[in-house]
Amino acid sequence: MYPADFRYSKDHEWIKVEGDTGTIGITDYAQNELGDVVFVELPKIGAQLKAGQTLGSIESVKAVSEVFSPATGEVVATNEALANSPEKINQEPHTGGWLIRLKLADKNEASALMDSAAYETYVAEKAKEHSA
User: From CA 21, how far away is CA 131, in angstroms rounded?
Assistant: First the structure.
């Protein structure tokens, strides 16, 4: 369900680290909770982000939600396809629906985040809370 080579935050963002670059998006769980995504606001290339800082927002038919950076670094790319096709976040949250790429300040920072097994457990506990 959740790619094993990603790391996950409690705010339901994922990061895939490749060398000194991290690709960031929201998880399948997050897009499902949001509903149909209609607009995405992303930072400008060159923006400096700290882990935990708001990187942008995602607007769905239900609400507007802030997205937080799971790592510290400089924005080196944004997913321009989302400007015309924000629904990619719903359709491909772990692939084509990525949000930004960061040049990581510390590529080991992401190792403090949850692995896929820990995230699946976290999401299962969240689901129980919602149904209780």
Answer: 38
Contact 2, 11 (CB under 8 A): no
- Compute the distance between CA of residue 33 and CA of residue 2 in angstroms, rounded to an integer: 16
> Which runs of E-coded beta strand occur in the chain?
7-8, 13-18, 21-26, 37-41, 48-49, 54-60, 64-68, 73-78, 100-104
**Is beta strand 37-41 parallel, antiparallel or unpaired with respect to 21-26?**
unpaired
| Neighbour count for residue 16 (Cβ, 10 Å) | 17
Domain boundaries, the chain: 7-131
Pick 7-131's CATH classification: 2.40.440.10, 3.40.50.2300, 2.40.50.100, 3.30.390.50.
2.40.50.100
Query: What is the reported pLDDT for 127?
Result: 81
Query: Residues 108-117: pLDDT tens digits?
Result: 999 999 999 9
How confident is the model over 69-119, as pLDDT tens digits?
A: 999 999 999 999 999 999 999 999 999 999 999 999 998 999 999 999 999
Q: 42 in helix, strand or coil? A: coil
